[in-house]
UniProtKB/TrEMBL annotation:
A single Gene Ontology CC term: cytoplasm
Name of the protein this chain belongs to: PSP1 C-terminal domain-containing protein
PSP1 C-terminal domain segment(s): 114-199
PANTHER family (UniProt xref): PROTEIN PSP1
Comp. bias intervals (Basic residues): 366-380, 405-423
Source lineage: Bacteria, Pseudomonadati, Bacteroidota, Flavobacteriia, Flavobacteriales
Organism of origin: Algibacter marinivivus
Region (Disordered): 358-423
Pfam family, one: PSP1
Domain of life, per lineage: Bacteria
């Protein structure tokens, strides 16, 4: 099996063109690429007889291939369950399964190992698909039943077993929930064995998946397998605003990506003095107001003069602290700040893009004052011309006698009419 954009053929993986961003069922989340598929084992070595099988929403289980079936990635197999059998897809075979089991601390004890029965037949697949189609309408009804019983829980997902003999209800809750009455309602309504399984909010987001604020698929549903605790101190070290709407992910908890660059920030902060360390000068005591980790700058302000900040480098701050440890004081911070200003003025940045101004395409603003002045001058000249010509239409006298103006117009038109009549 393979998606349209993948070069996998006949179950042998040869690479994916989407580079891990595929969301189809064939190259689904948490899929591992087998880089050892084209390599042969040394003489006398037997292939590792364990297989990794994936179920709905990235759930993976490791099985022992007791029947020595020839399996490859993408095969649909019938596996052992507590009661009946389950249907899943093979996602990894060979030596990489041994590495994954060792990383997840899964023992290779054959007594406790689950087994693979056979490759799934068409009848097994039809029963499995029919059961999968029932999950969505069942989830709607199950949520309504939980609301009617006034239980403080959220049913996030339902997963049927491959033989449709059992349904697992995944739910999240803040506190302990007594759902004994709910199970009776489910068993009476759905006519199947019910299993309730509580998951955390991060596990729920990993199961359901989605798109994060970065525009990519959620890390927990694509490649992240362990959920480390995330605290607000990670945001403080990275100088992020403590806004819960920006720091929280789709699960409602702090984003896992806050831990990705935390180690790099902690290494960079080793050269910085502590923010609560004060600098003692003859002018006064200075307190740290702001730090720039990338440029290595710090801003200090004297006590009582909080509006005036002085920028110095981390080396200068450490130097002043060493002088203070010797019970000595420097003259003022302005000496160090002025040196830093001189260094900054020497830097000349060239316009590599070739753009002089970002507003060069904007239309220039029209000067309305000049236009108004011109109108005023024009009106003043018209008034003077009207006075010289014996009056203007807009004079107060003409406004009072509008009939007189009409008569003048009619008298002007009469000679023209008489000429036409004579002709």
């Amino acid at each position: 099996m393979a998606c349209a954009s993948c070069t996998t053929k006949d179950g042998s993986p040869k690479g994916c063109k989407n580079n891990g961003t595929c969301g189809t069922d064939s190259c689904n989340k948490l899929t591992v690429f087998d880089w050892l598929s084209n390599m042969s084992l040394p003489n006398g070595e037997k292939p590792f007889n364990w297989v990794e099988v994936r179920y709905k929403n990235g759930r993976k289980v490791y099985y022992h291939n007791t029947e020595n079936l020839t399996l490859s990635i993408g095969d649909i197999v019938a596996t052992q369950a507590k009661a009946g059998h389950d249907i899943g897809m093979v996602t990894l075979t060979g030596e990489l399964v041994r590495v994954q089991m060792k990383r997840k601390n899964i023992s290779e004890n054959l007594e406790e190992a689950l087994k693979i029965y056979r490759k799934a037949s068409q009848k097994d697949i039809d029963i499995w698909q029919t059961a999968r189609d029932k999950e969505e309408p069942m989830k709607v009804k199950a949520r309504q039943f939980a609301i009617d019983l006034k239980l403080q829980m959220k049913i996030s997902d339902i997963e049927f077993q491959g033989d449709a003999s059992k349904a697992t209800f995944y739910y999240t809750a803040e506190e302990r929930v007594d759902f004994r009455e709910l199970i009776k309602v489910f068993a009476r309504e759905f006519r199947t064995r019910i299993e309730m399984k509580q998951v955390g909010f991060r596990q729920e987001a990993a199961r359901l998946g989605g798109i994060g604020s970065c525009g990519r698929e959620l890390c927990c549903s694509t490649w992240l397998t362990d959920f480390r605790s995330v605290s607000t101190s990670a945001a403080r070290y990275q100088q992020l605003s403590l806004n819960p709407q920006k720091l929280a992910g789709q699960c409602g908890k702090l984003k896992c990506c806050l831990n990705y660059e935390l180690d790099t920030y902690l290494d960079a902060l080793k050269s910085f003095p502590k923010n609560d360390t004060k600098l003692y000068t003859e002018k006064g005591t200075a307190v740290c107001q702001k730090t720039d980790i990338f440029k290595g700058h710090m801003w200090y302000a004297y006590e009582g003069e909080w509006m005036n900040w002085h920028k110095i480098t981390t080396e200068q701050a450490n130097e002043i602290i060493e002088i203070n440890k010797q019970k000595k004081k420097i003259a003022s911070l302005e000496e160090y700040a002025s040196d830093l200003v001189e260094e900054d003025t020497k830097e000349v940045f060239e316009n590599v893009v070739g753009q002089d101004s970002l507003t060069r395409f904007d239309s220039p603003k029209r000067n309305n004052k000049r236009r108004n002045n011109r109108r005023k001058k024009g009106n003043h000249n018209n008034k003077e011309a009207g006075a010289n010509n014996g009056g203007n239409k807009n004079t107060p006298e003409n406004k009072k006698n509008p009939n007189q103006n009409k008569r003048r117009k009619n008298n002007k038109r009469k000679p023209q009419n008489t000429k036409n009549a004579a002709k």
